[in-house]
Design goal:
By secondary structure, the chain is an alpha+beta fold. The protein folds into 4 domains: about 40 residues; about 40 residues, no CATH class; about 150 residues, Tetrahydropterin Synthase, Chain A (2-Layer Sandwich); about 80 residues. Helices cover about 50% and strands about 20% of the residues. It is built from 10 helices and 11 strands. Strands 6, 7, 8 and 11 form a 4-stranded antiparallel beta sheet that branches.
Length: about 375
Amino acid sequence: MDNNKNRYEGSFGTQENGQFYSGTAALMKLAKALFYLMTVVIVIMLIWFFTLGGSFIVDSTKESVLLLHFGKLTEQLNEGYHWRLPYPVNTIVRIPKTNQTIRSTTFMPADRKSLIERSSEENPMNTPQPLTPGKDSFLLTGDNSIIHTEWELVYRVTNPQQYYTKCLTPAQPLDPDEIFKDDKGESVGTRGATTMIKDLLDNCVIKVTATWNIKNILYDRTNDYINEVKALLIKSLNERQIGIAVESLALPVKRPPLLTIAAFDEAASADTQASIETEAAKAYSIETENSAKAEAAEIIANAQSYKKRVVAEVIADKVYFTKLLEEYNKNPESVMVSLYSTTLADALAKVKDKFTIGLNEDSRQELRIKLNPEPVVKKNQPVTEEK
């Protein structure tokens, strides 16, 4: 045993003729190479850490950049080139200035596709099913009706610091919200900026819808309904001061339950037809009124023209009789003879045959009658010869 022990102890020595000398030498060379390599890597990492690792550029037209020092918000960086010690000393949070979109399907049924595409009408065998509480979501209106809505909110960040500190924003704001789990490790939802803003929108939709009737929401005053929800949402966001501004709010989907869509369509069609008839009646009323006004204006114009003509004739007669009176006062007999002659001439102008009988009793009176008088020929009328 002692001989074997001495033999193995000698083999691990530095003697060149040892049994494991070549392997030990190769291992030592590999260890030295790895040591040199690790040294180079560490040096490169240190150089990168204190140079390129902490350098970055801020483009203020596209994003806002916040600086976290050991996880605590310290400042908002300005436009240009910056250098800070990299993670874990400092963390850079980039918040985009572009518009962000949130789509809320909170109040849609589980079979959303059938409601949007109304597939039950295309396939009669696909009978729509009643809503299931806890599975299908919906809204209650002010007239105790049920409606499904889907909203699309577009917003932008106006105050990055408020947005980051009050919205539970993740390190990368464009990433999905963090999944929140209870004590048992089960997922109970998400938390973050998107979740918070969406919940505020849903809360405003519930409040406003509870005061409206379904007819106004679906057909008559949809824009007013959207504007009221938008105004309440803006008020809620301003009260919480989370640093965002609403750009637009749209309602791309608004439907009654699938079982009642056909009835609502019939009611809408009847309402549309009633509106058409009402507009036609209004147009006829306006046309008749305009026609009556035009006819009344024509009658009034004719009456005014007749009035002016009669007044002018009366004034002319007045002037004539005034002049006649003046002449009569100067020479009554001459005026009377002239008036008599004029009146007689006017009276006899249309008489075809005239006979004049003298009134002098002492003189001889004769009545001569032309038995075959010449026919009266009108002017410019050719004369036909009698055969």
